[in-house]
Amino acid sequence: MTSETVIGLEVHVQLATASKMFCACAVSFGAPPNTLTCPVCLGLPGSLPVLNRRAVELGIRTALALGCRLHPESQFHRKNYYYPDLPKNYQISQYEYKGHPPLATGGALSVPLGGEARAVSIRRVHLEEDTGKLVHDGAASLVDYNRSGTPLMEVVTEPDLRSPLEARLFLAHLRSVLQFAEVTSGRLEEGTLRCDANLSLRLPGQPYGTRTEVKNMNSLRSVERALRFEEVRQREIRARGQAVVQETRHWDEDRQVTFSSREKEEAQDYRYFPEPDLVPLTVDAGWIDRVRAELPELPAARRRRYIEVFELPEHDATVLTTTRPMAEFFEQAARLFPQPKVISNWLIGDVSAYLNAAGREIDDVPVRPESLAGLLRLIDAGVLSGRSAKEVLEEMLRTGRAADAIVAERGLNQISDEGMLTAVVQEVIAEHPGPVQDVRAGKDQAVTFLVGQVMKKTRGRANPALVHRLLRERLSSG
Amino acid sequence: MSRGPALPDLPAWELRTLYRRRETSPTEVLHEVFRRIDANEGRIHAYLFLNREAALAEASRWDGEVAREDAPSLAGIPVAIKDNICMQGWPTTCGSRMLEQFKPPYDATVATRLRRAGAILLGKANLDEFAMGSSTENSAFGPTRNPWDETRVPGGTSGGPAAAVAAGEATLALGSDTGGSIRQPAAFCGVIGLKPTYGRVSRYGLVAFASSLDQIGPLARDVKDAALLLQAIAGWDPADSTSADVDVPPFAERLTGTIRGLRLGVVREFFAQGLDAGVADAVRAAIDTCRELGASCEEVSLPHASYALPAYYIIAPAEASSNLARYAGVHYGYRTPEAADLETMYSRTRREGFGAEVKRRIMLGTYALSAGYYEAFYLRAQQVRTLVRRDFAAAFERFDALLGPVTPTAAFRLGEKVDDPLQMYLSDVYTVPLNLAGIPGISVPCGFVGGLPVGLQVIGRPFDEVTVLNVAHAFERATTFHAARPPLAHPKNSPSLAPRDGPVDREKRRAQTSEDSLG
Quick check: B242 and A82 CB within 8 A? Predict the structure, then answer.
């Protein structure tokens, strides 16, 4: 009997707040070390935490988006352990035990998996603070506390996922929901979204097997690859009649393997207890209603709108609403160039191909919706051929320059001058009597060949529709 | 010749009157206080740090302002600050080697509020290390001695602030009270000590010992002064989530001087075994005085009071074990000079930086929170805490305030209990229940046993400091215990025991101060 793979995810989400979880310091990436700190996030003696209301609201949004039950009163706890990146030597988090619910529990996210929508259960949503960062400088270790106290939200699923692919698709979908809800920037590469996965195997109908926890996966692709590796590793262990060891394993992106971090899971005692410096967090119905009222449009609603308002095929609508930056890009471009399907074709086609190859997202590249609209206008006006446009787009994606500037610089303006093209057409007719004969004999594909010859002579700049007409006129009259 | 009290012995509200009449100045008062310090500090050791120049500069800034009617409430009044309260750029050692070199980059909220009220902050007063102890003998920088008898402790952990106020080395002082640390030293030193309701005063900038129990409060030489100081520091603070957004009444103005018709409960369990007979007599006499003043006094039982101390010694160390985890030598405070790896750095730093009592409590607390013990200890202690709180709530359905002793004995001898932690812990047996319940309590002098002061504890409903202060004030007006001053080395004059409630003898006082300032 083949074993079944069981996966549950713990997703750490950096909340898109202006300030930290328990102090007024700015949340920002890449500032000089230890410049975004204060007595609170440095854990100085006598300092006290004050909960960031905005972070709670983003947590409430998430709970609403995932259909979770929000608890009217939740509690923060201290997770006690020693590490230099943790200035208080405890992390303020929301631990789960009797009588102390986290912010929200018990939701579900419906995910298209294998052609059908499946509800993946959400166990809990809770809030916590991030640690600082260790910087190793030769023999010395330095600590940068800029990240210390950055608001995090943890979303924990039930072990409902059944394959590494499902895990990846779920994570992509969850990320999309959180991005559309404006809860997070959701970038695995930058660590604003981090995912730990628990994987175990079992025979169908049997209890769950021993699980391992896999960490350090910083792209959607590596989540799938790491879990695939882990799945095979566990299967082989079982095939050898050995027992899987419960442990934490790290994904090594370079070697494409998971390795044991040699942390003894049972040995760590975090001595959780209620955080006495914070009063219980109360979330009343009025607050929930206010947050619900300002909840941004989520991907499912947006997909429907794209189909109904922009009259896009379902496939296009789905692809464009996969990430929030792409959807935003599409809508802005559609406002400037009101041919949604044309924009969609370019975004799903050439733009996505470029992004996938570069491993980047639409808001990582310098091209703006205005410039894409500019390019499409040039094509529409017959100034630029579709073929030249691909070249121009490539440069736009790389440099962010405007389409017309690139066109002018490269001399790519389409030739729509009838006199100029007539001369070229006559040259081509004279040079290719065979195909000319074929056309006259009614073989239409030969026209395509002759058009191609004209394009070749004009380095692609000829207006193809005009070339077509001129050839037809010459050959039918001749 | 009978003369009025010296400037360092006057309460703040009287100094304010003299300032208004331009009969003295903050600078003059400060010089007198420093003379008192110079004459006595060598034996008493109330301070860990004195900031004379800053204080004198501040005083001279106030000299021209204090006569104004709209001068703030504590303008020109010298105040000592317990050394576990952060002040920007001043040492804040918590009486520990661990923080010997630590200077916070920020002011505690109470320090900001005191400056705004015009107070002149003199320096940082001694305490038991990280506010753990009952005698100030746990200070890494040497004990403070009781001004009434230098062979005895001043109590703790606010021993420095209490001794400073008793000895006239400060007019007022801020202490902190986690299990009795304001009230017990106030009782031992014969001054007023008030632990406000939990949440009444911001803890922002108070170095945490046990966050759910800690509260900053005033030490003063009379009740009106305690009310003035409380008023200056009380009130909601957005920087402390546990501070309460409730109105701050004008405490000093609300002192009526009468307790006629008030229903007072006498806590039966506080007169059980272990209470010194002399202390019991003094407190019983004080209760009789309250009766004579027109209050009804009846016995009331707090059935779970006897479980408060053991519960406290689970909860407080548990919170401390986490609060003190940050002292590990990473980015401030003491770090062991040599350590090959991180683990060694942590353990050596903490072994060398902390004293024995602090380590004992960290271990107790770590144990109480450990997996498998949490339910049996921490959770059980929290349940006891709920029962203690309910006991008080039930008592306050029948009574407006409760009375009892502050401590089982008067000040004990230095060294008497240092090797017996349990005996030491028992000196907080009547004060700890209030911290567990989060309610206010005051210690007001109510007699002497063998020449040592005894305190009466008045306990109130949550946020009803007005009644607590009022009972203490009425008692104080009817007695003279608070006016007694310890036998100190005065710069020129012999100690004065004249009652101070009457009008100040201006001429005599002026003669004395001019004489002193010339000397």
Answer: no
Rounded Cα gap, residues B491 and B36, in angstroms: 6
Residue B433 has pLDDT above 70, yes or no: yes
DSSP per-residue string spanning A276-337: TTSPPEE--HHHHHHHHHTPPPPHHHHHHHHHHTS---HHHHHHHTSSHHHHHHHHHHHHHS
Same domain (yes/no): A320, A188: no
CATH number for the domain including A471?
Answer: 1.10.10.410
Q: Which residue in A84, A89, A90 is closest to B342 by CB distance? A: A84
Give the integer Cα–Cα distance in Å for A105 and B264: 49
Q: Per the structure, how many domains does chain A have?
A: 3
Contacts of B246 (CB under 8 A, 6+ apart): B199, B200, B236, B463
Query: B37 exposed, middle or buried (CB, 10 Å; 0-12, 13-18, 19+)?
Result: buried
The reply to whether A82 and A177 lie within a common domain is yes
Provide the domain limits for residue A470.
Answer: 418-477
Question: For residue A19, with 0-12 CB atoms within 10 Å meaning exposed, 13-18 middle and 19 or more buried, which class applies?
Answer: middle
Q: Do B242 and A42 make contact, defined as CB atoms within 8 angstroms?
A: no
Asked if A48 reaches chain B (Cβ–Cβ under 8 Å), the answer is: yes
Contact A44 B332 (CB under 8 A): yes
Instruction: Summarize pLDDT for B92-103 with one digit per residue, the tens.
Output: 999 999 999 999
Residue A471, both tokens: 């050839």
Q: Are both A231 and A328 inside the same structural domain?
A: no
Residue B192's φ and ψ, nearest 5 degrees, are: -90, 135
State whether A301 and A432 are in the same domain: no
What pLDDT does residue B514 have? 37
Distance CA B472, CA B290 (A): 10
- A258 and A363, same domain (yes or no): no
- The CA–CA distances, whole Å, from B263 to B28, B293, B294, B471 equal 44, 12, 9, 11
Could you tell me which chain A residue has the CA closest to the CA of B346? A82
CATH topology for the B7-254+442-518 domain:
Amidase signature (AS) enzymes (3.90.1300)
Which residues make Cβ contacts (< 8 Å) with residue A456, sequence separation at least 6? none
Clarify whether residues A190 and A305 are in a common domain: no
Between strands A4-14 and A257-260, the pairing is: unpaired
How far, in Å, CA of A156 to CA of A13, rounded?
Answer: 11
pLDDT value at residue A358 = 87
Contacts of A137 (CB under 8 A, 6+ apart): none
Q: How many helices (H) and strands (E) does chain B have?
A: 16, 11
Nearest to B325 among A84, A90, A269 (CB): A90
Rounded distance between C-alpha atoms, residue B183 and residue B407, angstroms:
9
Distance from C-alpha of B497 to C-alpha of A340, rounded to nearest angstrom:
94
Contact B104 A39 (CB under 8 A): yes
Asked if residue A276 has pLDDT above 60, the reply is yes
Q: Are strands B452-459 and B441-449 parallel, antiparallel or unpaired?
A: antiparallel
Q: How far apart are CA B65 and CA B55, in angstroms?
A: 16
- The answer, yes or no, to whether residue A268 has pLDDT greater than 90, is no
Distance from CA of B240 to the nearest CA of A (A): 6
Rounded CA-CA distance A265/B228 in Å is: 55
Residue B334 CB neighbours (<10 A):
20
Looking at chain A, the whole-number percentage of residues with pLDDT higher than 70 is 98
d(CA A191, CA A130): 11
Domain boundaries, chain B: 7-254+442-518
Cβ-based contacts of A278 with chain B (< 8 Å): 241-242
8 A C-beta contact, residue B419 and residue B197: no
Can you tell me the mean pLDDT for B500-513?
A: 38
Burial category of B491 from C-beta neighbours within 10 Å (exposed 0-12, middle 13-18, buried 19 and up):
middle
**Domain shared by A285 and A334, yes or no:** no
Q: How far apart are CA A8 and CA A209, in angstroms?
A: 13
* Interval B393-409 mean pLDDT: 98
